[in-house]
Amino acid sequence: MSHMEEQKFKDSAPEKDHWKTKAPYKVHDKQDDFHVRYEASCHCGKVKYQLSREEPLDSKLCHCTTCQTQHAAPFQWAAIFHKDDINFTHGHHDLEWYDPTSKSIAHQLPCKVRCSFCHSPIMDEGRNMILLFPSLIHFKNDQEKANFKPRLHMFYNQRVMDIPDGLPKWTGINEGEDSHLIEDSPPELVKEMERKRVEEQKKKVESGENK
User: Fold this and answer.
1) Residue 108, exposed/middle/buried by CB under 10 A (0-12, 13-18, 19+)?
2) With contact defined as beta carbons under 8 Å apart, do 23 and 84 qualify?
3) 91: alpha, beta or left, given left = phi > 0 and alpha = psi -120 to 50?
4) Taking every annotated instance into account, which residue ranges of this chain make up the domain CENP-V/GFA (predicted)?
5) Cα dihedral across residues 89, 93, 94, 97: positive or negative
6) For the CA atoms of the chain, what is the radius of gyration?
7) Which residues contact 57 (CB under 8 A, 6 or more apart)?
8) CA–CA separation, 191 vs 197, rounded Å?
9) pTM (predicted TM-score)
């Protein structure tokens, strides 16, 4: 589609369909110059996307009750990216939205995005950023996965289980006036757990289990 044709489509598209022409979706933009570093997909494979950034802007573990309910899990692993860092290669029209605040299924920001077939969470779309779920990414080696290692816990006071991993644990989104650090587990316990984790990882590598 030429630039003129694309602009014509944007001008004629109904207001409710404007999401199709903007990042992170860009349905009618081939993005031939997109530098692919990672590939990801939902559980059924109908929704597929690529990422161009080697490391996320940030990576967090969220314990808020909304994430617990939406993911049916004790917490959520999420990585933050710019909207232009993602390129959907398949399944633009297999997406559905949900706004937990208004309980609306219209595309209104911020909202949660899922595959409409298998209902896998794809991302949280904010007004300026997107929050992706690394468990959907097809990591090719341990280093790629390490690039997404969580750096902190947020809304830890809403947790349903303790995680003594030595990472900073905040009562809110991050450091700020309304967010405070919660005392972590004893340093000795954290060191012992990390030592065991390193030993287990080393054994997996030596046995070829981690290839």
Assistant:
1) middle
2) yes
3) left
4) 38-171
5) positive
6) 19
7) 79, 80, 81, 82, 129
8) 10
9) 0.75
CA–CA dist 182, 159 (Å, integer) = 12
Strand partners, 113: 97, 123
Determine contact, residues 154/173, Cβ cutoff 8 Å: yes
For residue 68, what are its two tokens? 């617990």
191-200 long-range contacts (CB < 8 A, ≥24 apart) are: 191/166, 193/164, 193/165, 194/166
Length of the chain: 211
> Per the structure block, which two tokens stand in for 83?
């909207």
pLDDT tens, residue by residue, 70-92: 999 999 999 999 999 999 999 98
14: amino acid identity, one letter? P
Grouping H, G, I as helix, E, B as strand and the rest as coil, residue 141 is coil
43-58 pLDDT per residue, tens: 999 999 999 999 999 9
